[in-house]
Design goal:
Blueprint: E1 8-12, H1 16-28, E2 34-39, E3 50-53, E4 56-59, E5 65-66, H2 76-83, E6 90-91, E7 98-102, E8 105-108, E9 113-114, E10 117-118, H3 150-158, H4 160-175, H5 184-187, H6 189-195, H7 201-211, E11 221-224, H8 228-239, E12 242-245, E13 249-254, E14 259-263, H9 276-279, E15 288-292, E16 294-297, H10 301-308, H11 313-320, E17 323-334, E18 345-347, E19 356-361, H12 362-365, H13 367-370, E20 379-385, H14 398-413, E21 422-434, H15 439-449, E22 454-456, H16 459-462, H17 466-485
Parallel strand pairs: 1-2, 1-16, 2-12, 7-18, 16-22
Antiparallel strand pairs: 3-4, 5-11, 6-11, 7-8, 9-10, 13-14, 14-15, 17-20, 17-21, 18-19, 19-20
Helix pairs in contact: 1-8, 1-17, 2-17, 3-4, 6-7, 10-11, 11-15
């Protein structure tokens, strides 16, 4: 048990990982514990942000989360939503298929794959053909403790076409990255585990699929009716934390009894066209400090590395190597009755060369939205633009990107889309982590070297997706709670 002396815990970062940490801390720590969430931006939630389009709530970030955990139970996100009283508001998508856009045609995504990787490539039909040799070489595909890029493994066993046409678009839909640069251990941990036992890729996929069989019959995805912002607000309220917005944490350092946070904006040089004298005499906000007993660091890799550098250059270096991809989301409210294919949406392989990499037919995929505006409501389409390594393709004004998205969407579905009645664009610069092989090992090293009372949480460390971030935040809260009790 934590002793009776009143403790103070800081959570740096107000995304869902930080908020999940704050809720878990509230559950674990004595009632008198002060929990402070420092978020340098103006709003909580990170990449969970609900907007409005055509009179409907439409996500400007993550639109759903996995219903089940790898072990067959409910995911950490579902458990948190229920803990927050949102169980009755959980909704699921309609049973409408999704497609791949290949060579100007929309082709249903083949069933029975794992992140686009089939157990039997011959079952893919004309979508893609195997050209590799998935033979038993008398040893497991992956050595114990080893990691490999997803694309490297699949190309070696099945050939390039399956990577290019299936694996790349499915991984790209989640990570905006390429299979040749993404860690198998992070993006497909069950498959990585099976690959350390099985001798062929087909056998490894089948083994990973059997492990997931306990989830059969359960909806794959879940959302919160009314929007993900409800999850954010409920977590903030349940944590009982003091929320500090717009006040960055500039530095963290150890004290005799805990940690000292240095707060306040970082001084920046004059911008282009301004001389140093032009900004001379302007008041600089005075730095503030806050002394706390423990810290949960739930921010992206680069700010985390900056804050860790004063504690350990080695830890900071292990964290800083993580790269990110920039993406943009486009929301279009099309006139009622706009015809769309009978799909929930589609994915586009990078080889097609389009800026659009994915599209969701929102009002078809989510029946609870369509029911709010029956008959005469708008047709909502959401498109995702941009891939890792191509930030220059997003460096245009909003009007240009909106029109480009509308034009490409029309070409991809085989008919020009009408001008939208309303639209928006949401940019996520450096928004999606690109987990290179060895990521898990680097994070494990960083965590082993951290001083007690300091924990890491969030997508920078434990994977994208709301359940991964929630579980990461909860684990960090448990770690600092144990440290304070020790």
């Amino acid at each position: 048990m934590v002793d009776d002396v009143r403790k103070r815990v800081a959570v740096i970062g107000g995304g869902i990982a930080g908020l999940a940490a704050a809720v878990r801390l509230r559950d674990l720590m004595p009632a008198a514990t002060d929990i402070i969430v420092y978020e340098q931006g103006g709003v909580l939630g990170g990449k969970l942000r609900t907007g409005e389009l055509g009179g409907l709530p439409v996500e400007r970030g993550a639109e759903s989360f996995l219903t089940s955990s790898p072990d067959g139970g409910e995911s950490a996100a579902v458990a948190l939503a229920k803990r927050l009283g949102l169980g009755p508001s959980l909704v699921h998508p309609a049973k409408v298929p999704a497609a791949l856009s290949i060579g100007g045609r929309l082709t249903p995504i083949p069933a029975g794959t794992l992140m686009g990787i089939p157990a039997d490539p011959s079952a893919l039909g004309e979508v893609a053909h195997a050209s590799g040799h998935d033979i038993d070489e008398g040893r497991p595909l992956l050595a114990e403790g080893a990691d490999v890029a997803v694309g490297t493994l699949v190309r070696a066993r099945y050939g390039a076409e399956i990577v290019d046409r299936l694996v790349d678009p499915l991984l790209g839909g989640v990570y905006a990255g390429r299979a040749d640069g993404l860690s198998l251990e992070v993006t497909a941990p069950q498959l990585a585990g099976a690959a350390r036992v099985e001798h062929t890729l087909g056998a490894a996929v089948r083994a990973a699929q059997r492990a997931r069989a306990t989830n059969a019959g359960r909806p794959v995805f879940t959302a919160v009716e009314g929007g993900m912002t409800r999850l954010v607000a409920a977590a903030a309220a349940a944590s009982g934390a003091r929320i500090s917005l717009g006040l960055p944490v500039r530095d963290i350092s150890r004290t005799a009894h805990g940690w000292r946070l240095l707060l306040g904006p970082v001084a920046t040089p004059p911008g282009p066209g301004f001389s140093a004298s032009a900004t001379a005499g302007r008041p600089v906000p005075a730095a503030q400090t806050d002394d706390v007993d423990a810290v949960v660091l739930a921010v992206p890799a680069r700010p985390a590395a900056r804050l860790l550098r004063g504690l350990s250059a080695e830890i900071a270096e292990a964290v800083a190597v993580l790269d990110y991809a920039s993406v943009a989301l486009v929301g279009l409210a099309l006139p009622p009755g706009t015809p769309l294919p009978e799909l929930s949406g589609f994915l586009v392989p990078p080889s097609e060369g389009t800026l659009v990499k994915a599209a969701t037919f929102v009002t078809r995929k989510w029946p609870h939205l369509a029911s709010r505006r029956p008959g005469s409501g708008p047709v909502i389409v959401r498109a995702s633009l941009g891939r890792a390594g191509e930030p220059e393709r997003l460096q245009f004004g909003d009007d240009v990107l909106l029109e480009r998205a509308r034009r490409e969407l029309g070409e991809l579905i085989g008919g020009e889309l009408p001008p939208p009645a309303a639209s928006w664009i949401q940019r996520w610069g450096g928004g999606l982590p690109q987990y290179a092989p060895g990521h898990r090992e680097r994070v494990a090293f960083a965590r082993r070297e951290l001083p007690p009372g300091l924990a890491l949480a969030g997508a920078a460390f434990d994977g994208v997706g709301i359940p991964a971030c929630v579980a990461s935040g909860e684990r960090a809260a448990e770690d600092v709670s144990k440290a304070l009790a020790g």
